[in-house]
Design goal:
This protein is an alpha+beta fold. 27% of the residues lie in helices and 27% in strands. A hairpin with a 5-residue loop joins β19 and β20. α9 packs parallel to α10.
C-alpha cells in the first residue's frame, strides 16, 4: 500500500507511459527495420538485373561477340560428344600461323595490347582483378566482355608485382601476381586469368573473312543462346568445303571463334588457338580432344588443298563406270546416307578433293541417267602388295572404276525424279529400284507365274515391290498398307464361325 499519494500517482503515470512507449515505439521500430530490409533487397535485385541487362546489351553491341544463326535466349545446353581424333600439323597451316600469329610471352607484352574478359565457371568464384582506385577485388562477372588494354607492370609498396589494365569503361584495374618476382612468373604459362587475346581475333578477321576452308574434324559447335555461352555440338563431314562468315572472340584458351557456312547453308563454328598468347596451356596440352581447337586441327586452307589436288584435276569432266557393286554416300534434306550402287553404272566426275595427310581422294560423281549426286572415297595408289596401306583393294580407283560409260540405260524423267527422292514408282527397272532404295532388298520371292517380289524391311513393316514379267515394277505396297492387310487377315482368322448345323437337321434353332 502506497503511503505517499503524490508519489504513487507519479509512479503510475511513469509506468503507464513506459508501457505505451514500448508497445508503439518498439513496434514502429520493428516495422521500419523490415521496410529498410525489403528496400535493400529490392535494390540488390534491381542492381543485379540492371547489371545483367547492361552485359547483354554490351554483348549484342560488341563486334567481337558473334553467334551462329538461330541462337536463342537462355536455352539449356548439354555437351553431347567428345572427339579423340588426333590430327598431325600440316606444313602449310604452320606457315600460315607462323607468318601472321606471333606468340607473345607475358615477359614480352607491350602496352596497348588488347584483351577481352571471358570468365569461366572457376573465375566467377576466384576474383582476378582489383580496382586500382580502391584496391578492392572486383567480380569477374561484372567485367564480362569488357575490353582491357595493357598499361604495363608496376611494383606495389608491399613488394607485389601488378599487371595494370585500362578498361573500356575508363577505369583502371590491376592483376596482382600471386607470389615471387615478375620475371619468375612471366616465363610460365599461367598468364592472366579470364583474358582472351584480341590481337589474334583482329588478324584472323583480316586473313580469313570470306575465305574458303575445308573441315578437318567432325565435331563443331552451334550457338544456342544469343545472350550467353550456350552451345550444342554438331557432327559434320571431314574435308567439306565451307566459307568463313564471321570471326569473333571465343574463350581465354581458344580466343578465335570462326563461324563457317557449308554448301547447304548450315552454319557452325569452332573456337581455336592461333598464337596461343595467354592461353594458359602448354604446347603439349594441345593433344587428343584439344587438337580440334587448333586452327590446323579444325580447318585446312583452300590453297593447301588445291596444291594437293592438282594431280587429280585431269579426271574432272570424265565419264567413268563402276565395274563392281559398291557403296556411295549421297545427301538429301541436309542429311547423309550410304546407298548400294549396282555395277556398270555411269558417272561424270564433277570434282576431286584430296584429303590432307591421307591417301584418299573424295570423288564427287553425278549419275548420268538419274543426275543424282554421289560421293566416293578412293585411292589412286594400288594397295596390293603393300602391307602398310590403309586402303582396301575395292577402294583402289583402278580396281573399282573404268573409263567410259557402263551399261546403256533409258531412264524416264519420272524415274529420275523418283530416284532423286528415294521413291519407287511403276515402270522402274530392278537397277532403278536399287538406286532409289539405296540397297538390295531384304528378301526376294518368285510367284508361280514367274513374277518377282522384293521385300524391303522398314521400322513399321515391309515395303513390297512386285515386278511384272517384263522386269518392270508392276505395283508396290507400303508398310502401312501391308499392316492393314495383315490385320484384316488376322480378324478374319479369329472371327467365330456361324453355327449352321441346324440346316443339316430337321429342326429350327431356338
Amino acid at each position: 500500500m502506497c503511503q505517499n499519494g503524490f508519489f504513487c500517482l507519479k509512479m503510475f503515470f511513469v509506468t503507464s507511459f513506459w508501457h505505451i512507449f514500448q508497445k508503439y515505439f518498439l513496434s514502429l521500430h520493428h516495422k521500419l527495420y523490415n521496410l529498410i530490409f525489403i528496400l535493400q533487397m529490392k535494390r540488390a535485385i534491381l542492381t543485379a538485373g540492371l547489371t545483367m541487362l547492361l552485359m547483354t546489351i554490351s554483348a549484342q553491341e560488341n563486334s567481337y561477340i558473334v553467334k551462329t544463326r538461330n541462337a536463342k535466349k537462355k536455352v539449356a545446353v548439354e555437351n553431347l560428344l567428345t572427339d579423340s581424333t588426333a590430327v598431325e600439323e600440316e606444313e602449310t597451316a604452320n606457315d600460315f600461323i607462323a607468318k601472321f600469329f606471333k606468340y607473345h610471352s607475358l615477359c614480352d607484352w607491350k602496352e596497348g595490347m588488347k584483351f577481352m574478359v571471358m570468365p569461366e565457371k572457376y573465375d566467377l568464384v576466384v576474383k582476378t582483378f582489383c580496382d586500382a582506385g580502391t584496391g578492392k577485388e572486383v567480380s569477374s562477372m561484372s567485367l564480362r566482355h569488357k575490353i582491357m588494354t595493357y598499361k604495363g607492370k608496376s611494383e606495389s609498396s608491399d613488394g607485389h608485382w601488378r599487371m595494370n589494365f585500362q578498361c573500356d569503361n575508363n577505369k583502371m584495374y590491376y592483376y596482382e601476381i600471386p607470389s615471387g618476382s615478375f620475371d619468375d612468373y612471366c616465363y610460365g604459362k599461367l598468364g592472366v586469368p579470364t583474358l582472351a587475346y584480341l590481337g589474334d581475333v583482329d588478324i584472323a578477321r583480316e586473313q580469313l573473312m570470306g575465305k574458303k576452308l575445308y573441315t578437318k574434324t567432325r565435331i563443331y559447335r552451334v550457338d544456342t543462346e544469343t545472350d550467353g555461352d550456350g552451345y550444342r555440338e554438331t557432327i559434320q563431314p571431314m574435308n567439306q568445303e565451307v566459307t568463313v562468315t564471321a570471326v569473333g572472340v571465343g574463350t581465354r584458351s581458344f580466343p578465335v571463334k570462326i563461324i563457317v557456312e557449308d554448301e547447304l547453308g548450315n552454319e557452325y563454328y569452332q573456337v581455336v588457338a592461333m598464337s596461343k598468347t595467354n592461353s594458359g596451356m602448354r604446347d603439349d596440352e594441345f593433344i587428343m580432344d584439344s587438337i580440334k581447337h587448333t586452327f590446323y586441327g579444325a580447318f585446312e586452307l583452300e590453297d593447301a588443298v588445291m596444291k594437293v589436288n592438282k594431280d587429280y584435276k585431269t579426271y574432272i569432266g570424265k565419264v567413268i563406270h563402276n565395274k563392281y557393286k559398291t557403296e556411295m554416300m549421297t545427301k538429301g534434306d541436309g542429311k547423309e546416307r550410304y546407298v548400294t550402287i549396282p555395277k556398270m553404272m555411269s558417272f561424270r566426275v564433277d570434282n576431286t578433293l584430296a584429303q590432307p595427310n591421307s591417301e584418299f581422294v573424295t570423288l564427287t560423281l553425278t549419275e548420268v541417267d538419274s543426275r543424282r549426286i554421289f560421293y566416293k572415297d578412293v585411292t589412286f595408289k594400288n594397295p596390293a602388295g603393300n602391307p602398310n596401306a590403309r586402303a582396301k583393294e575395292d577402294e583402289f580407283f583402278g580396281y573399282l572404276f573404268a573409263m567410259g560409260e557402263g551399261k546403256s540405260r533409258k531412264t524416264s524423267q519420272a524415274a529420275r525424279a523418283a530416284i532423286q527422292q528415294g521413291r519407287v514408282i511403276p515402270g522402274m527397272s530392278e537397277d532403278e529400284v536399287i538406286l532409289a532404295m539405296g540397297e538390295e532388298p531384304s528378301r526376294k520371292e518368285t510367284t508361280s507365274v514367274g513374277k518377282h517380289i522384293w521385300f524391303y524391311k522398314r521400322s513399321k513393316g515391309f515395303l513390297t515391290v512386285t515386278f511384272g514379267l517384263d522386269g518392270r515394277v508392276e505395283s508396290y505396297t507400303t508398310p502401312a498398307a501391308n499392316n492393314k492387310k495383315t490385320q484384316a487377315r488376322r480378324r478374319a482368322a479369329t472371327k467365330p464361325k456361324e453355327n449352321n448345323e441346324w440346316m443339316r437337321r430337321n429342326g429350327t434353332p431356338l
